[in-house]
């Protein structure tokens, strides 16, 4: 019992420390790439960029970033369209901060893909709504988890990009929650399966039973954690980048002698791999992430740690009866995810744990590939910016997509 309480307290402390980071100022910011927006960064590195606004059927306005062509091939009709979807606490910067040589978005543009990068509701680029204000109406605005991202965000994104480009299908790469939203979308709106040429799932997350991370620590608290955080007025998880900026500019300074500690502390949430950690990128990365998330997205994952099931949000007995007409939340029907899927997983991933990934793989009806990244310490965030990603993952993905 004491251990359980200690665990809960630790989880809460972690949440509150990160969530209250808003008040810290950042007098030391001196890294240009940390401060540029995603479109500004893309322009800086010599690629064309477009900004699109997509409005969901429930009123969220999301910014989408497009790199229509790369350095080896110009604009053309009928290019292959690819959608990149970031994970928890991430944004479209995840696909470009590694720079033009290693960033997946740039590599794909140079392979002649028409690259679109989504931003889920609630992150840096998608804090807008047709009628709700993220601050004044915070309780309503932030009452979503990745369930709503799969139900509303991705269908709106897909409709928009398919219409805009005039193509009948797209390639999809999702990381972490970018995969979770995809599973929700395809199981709840099965008509979208036919529009997906190949889903490349990086660090796939559906079942979270074996998750090892502070998200798992909040699990014993279940519904109450959200209530508690709501008391603090924290509907939004991680309201600002200021705290991370501060760490990024001080502890993780390029010349700092304690860079390793920095990566230890920061990467506690998602696993740690010093081999593939590019310390020089840290100030830039931390200028962009964490990019904002709702508390409910974390709680929803934590619920899966306890239930061992991949199912809808648990509102508690009374809430569930009212919303679902049953005591327990319904499970997502994985058998409806008929789009072709390639799974990419890391041995040292604390969030997309091998046993959970394998359980998903057994139930997915159209598995094309189950690929273990060829590096023993490869972790959850390595998928985005590990030193050797061109060989470890980018080329793997691009080569395999040629079959579809
Ligand atoms: C997207 O929305 C913003 C804010 O309303 C607006 O300034 C911008 O012009 C819009 N962009 C496009 C391409 O419609
Ligand atoms: C479809 O795309 C065209 C531009 O290619 C645009 O003019 C039109 O408004 C779009 N329709 C919808 C429903 O988004
Ligand atoms: C970091 O060290 C390099 C070489 O020692 C130096 O040129 C550079 O100015 C230093 N950067 C900062 C921000 O102190």
What is the topology?
Blueprint: H1 2-19, H2 32-35, H3 38-44, E1 50-55, E2 60-67, E3 81-85, H4 104-110, E4 114-117, E5 128-129, H5 138-141, H6 146-165, E6 170-175, H7 177-188, E7 196-202, H8 214-217, H9 223-231, E8 236-237, H10 242-249, H11 259-266, H12 282-288, E9 293-294, H13 295-307, H14 316-324, E10 341-345, H15 354-363, E11 367-372, H16 382-385, H17 389-401
Parallel strand pairs: 3-4, 3-6, 6-7, 7-10, 10-11
Antiparallel strand pairs: 1-2, 2-4, 2-5, 8-9
The structure holds 2-acetamido-2-deoxy-beta-D-glucopyranose (3 copies).
Domain Partial AB-hydrolase lipase: 38-97
Organism: Orchesella dallaii
Keywords: Hydrolase, Lipid degradation, Lipid metabolism, Signal
Description:
39% of the residues lie in helices and 13% in strands. By secondary structure, it is of the alpha/beta class. It has a single domain, classed as Rossmann fold. The strands form 2 sheets. Strands 1, 2, 3, 4, 5, 6, 7, 10 and 11 form a 9-stranded mixed sheet that branches. β1 and β2 form a beta hairpin. α6 crosses α7 and α10 runs antiparallel to α12. The termini are far apart. The N terminus is likely disordered. The structure holds 2-acetamido-2-deoxy-beta-D-glucopyranose (3 copies). The site of one 2-acetamido-2-deoxy-beta-D-glucopyranose has 2 residues, from loops.
Q: What is the chain-wise order of helices and strands?
A: HHHEEEHEEHHEHEHHEHHHEHHEHEHH
The value of Rg in angstroms is: 20 Å
Shape: globular
> In the residues, how many domains can be counted?
1
Which class of secondary structure composition applies to the elements?
A: alpha/beta
Residues in β-strands, percent: 5-15%
Please, what is the average pLDDT? 84
Main beta-sheet strand count, sense and barrel state: 9 strands, mixed
Helix content: 25-40%
The set of bound ligands, ions and cofactors reads:
2-acetamido-2-deoxy-beta-D-glucopyranose
Number of helices: 17
Separation of termini? Answer: 52 Å
What low-confidence regions span 5 or more consecutive residues with pLDDT below 50? Answer: 1-13, 15-29, 238-244, 260-266
Write the CATH fold name. Answer: Rossmann fold
Question: What is the highest CATH level, the class?
Answer: Alpha Beta
Signal peptide: 1-21
Pfam families: Abhydro_lipase (PF04083)
Protein name: Lipase
InterPro entries: AB_hydrolase_fold, AB_hydrolase_lipase, Lipase_euk
């Amino acid at each position: 019992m004491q251990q359980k309480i200690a665990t809960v307290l630790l989880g809460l402390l972690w949440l509150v420390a990160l969530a209250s980071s808003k008040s810290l100022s950042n007098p030391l910011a001196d890294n240009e790439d940390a401060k540029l927006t995603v479109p500004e960064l893309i322009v800086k590195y010599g690629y064309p960029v477009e900004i699109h606004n997509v409005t969901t059927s429930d009123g969220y306005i999301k910014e989408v970033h497009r790199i229509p062509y790369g350095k080896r091939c110009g604009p053309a009709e009928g290019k292959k369209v690819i959608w990149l979807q970031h994970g928890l606490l991430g944004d479209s910067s995840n696909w470009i901060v590694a720079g033009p040589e290693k960033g997946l978005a740039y590599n794909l543009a140079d392979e002649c893909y028409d690259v679109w990068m989504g931003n889920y509701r609630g992150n840096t680029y998608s804090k807008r709504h047709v009628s709700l204000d993220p601050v004044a109406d915070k309780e309503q605005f932030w009452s979503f988890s990745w369930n709503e991202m799969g139900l509303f965000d991705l269908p709106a994104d897909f409709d928009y990009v398919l219409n805009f480009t005039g193509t009948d299908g797209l390639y999809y790469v999702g990381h972490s929650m970018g995969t979770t939203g995809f599973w929700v979308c395809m199981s709840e709106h099965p008509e979208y399966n036919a529009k997906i040429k190949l889903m490349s799932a990086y660090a796939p997350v559906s079942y979270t039973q074996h998750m090892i991370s502070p998200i798992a620590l909040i699990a014993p608290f279940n519904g109450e954690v959200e209530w508690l955080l709501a008391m603090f007025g924290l509907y939004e998880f991680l309201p600002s980048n200021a705290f991370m900026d501060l760490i990024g500019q001080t502890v993780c300074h390029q010349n700092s002698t304690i860079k390793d500690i920095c990566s230890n502390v920061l990467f506690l949430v998602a696993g740690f791999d010093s081999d593939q950690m590019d310390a020089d990128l840290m100030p830039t990365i931390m200028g962009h992430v964490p990019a904002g998330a709702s508390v409910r997205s974390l709680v929803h994952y934590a619920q899966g740690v306890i239930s061992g099931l991949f199912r809808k949000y648990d509102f508690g007995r009374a809430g569930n009866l009212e919303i679902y007409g049953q005591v327990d939340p319904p499970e997502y029907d994985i058998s409806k995810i008929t789009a072709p899927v390639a799974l990419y997983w890391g041995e040292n991933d604390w969030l997309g744990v091998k046993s959970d990934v394998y359980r998903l793989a057994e139930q997915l009806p159209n598995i094309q590939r189950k690929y273990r990244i060829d590096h023993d310490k490869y972790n959850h965030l390595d998928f985005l910016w590990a030193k050797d990603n061109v060989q470890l993952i980018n080329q793997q993905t691009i080569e395999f997509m040629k079959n579809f």
